[in-house]
Design goal:
Layout lengths: L2 H10 L4 E5 L5 E5 L6 E5 L2 H9 L1 H10 L3 E2 L5 H14 L3 H20 L4 H12 L3 H5 L20 H16 L7 E5 L5 H10 L2 E6 L2 H13 L6 E5 L9 E7 L10 H11 E14 L8 H7 L8 H11 L2 E8 L2 H15 L1 H7 L2 H20 L2 E9 L10 H7 L2 H19 L1
Parallel strand pairs: 1-3, 5-6, 5-8, 6-7, 8-9
Antiparallel strand pairs: 1-2, 3-4, 9-11, 10-11
Helix pairs in contact: 2-3, 3-16, 4-16, 8-17, 9-18, 11-13, 14-16
Amino acid sequence: MNRFLSYLLRRLIKTGDLNVEFADGSKLRLGDGTGTPVNLRFNSSRAEWAVALDPNLKLAECYMDGEIDLPDTDVFDLLAVVLKNLRRHKTAPTRWIKLIELARRVPAYLLERNTLGRSRSNVQHHYDLSGELYDLFLDPDRQYSCAYFEDPKMDLEQAQMAKKRHIASKLIMDREGLKVLDIGSGWGGMGLHLARQFNARVTGVTLSDEQHSVSKQRAREDGFAGQVEFKLLDYRKLDQSFDRIVSVGMFEHVGRKHFQTYFDKCAEMLAEDGVMLLHTIGQSEPPTPTNPFIKKHIFPGGYIPSLSEVITAIERSGLVITDVEVLRLHYAETLKAWRARFLENRDKAKELYDERFCRMWDFYLASSEAAFRWQDLVVFQIQLAHQPDAVPLTRDYIGRNERAPHRVKKANESARKKREARAK
């Protein structure tokens, strides 16, 4: 039995039911016996020391490499026990983990430089995976960001549509022909929604070859090729003005050193009477380094901002914050739905990649859901403008905009007629 790891686990796990088997065959039972029994087996002493010395990175990597197994246990249940205890108990293990993260902080900041070339490489690492993979767990519109469960009974497709409606309502799409910029346009779903529902003229930019190809094809097939343009381009290279700017799930890739550049550029591109909506994962606590497993294996170059970091950069850009909403647990429910679909199609994912990839992806989805449930992760929706009166002075309009099918129908009809006229 690894005495150091055993000591840390005894100090940490006070609730739950965690059963640990070490590489030498010795066993340790931890917790108060409540909840789902969780079984953790170490297959090597190397894995024991790795997890003891760097748990935030090595628990995931040892699981990926098969040096840790979870007999009759779901990885989410293991993470739930650990994170619930970390949240409740300020013990030696939590201090040890904070010390490790503190040691990471300085080199992480020094190396965090998302230049034009590095940003493209970071995006390609994740988003240029096989499109077939994303079809295994995303909704048909490939919305790869937090859904909006305005009704807990919603399924994933309904909640993702509600997210698009919610964002559009804050953009105040109050007239046809608005020029909209979608920064980090993904597979095109948000931009096409704005074009389809409000007859907007949309420019979307992405650094992913795969996303760019799919979104352009979708625009052609849906009859919006002349109205919606998707570009393989860094937003920093744009030289245009827009009535509306939307950015969903992209800001997490900007990096702390480039926050000011991001908001300065948005301020430059946003029309004087324009409105912007930023939708990003954030921390509800003071700034901390990105989880090392996520940073190394899932989103290199990524950083989850605290609101205090974002606000400072916005203030310096000259933009005015007109609304802030914090979505709590919506992403946890989104990730739960994604992971359930991924596990249903795990064999197909293994055919695309391999067992190690499946373990990595399962850990990514499970740990992300757990972090949104029991750590400090939330989603910020920040509405911005140049003028404080660019949006209504009360928030009632958001709900009204979401419940305005007559306007959507009118915009749809107008857009259809214009597309037919262009086709002739």
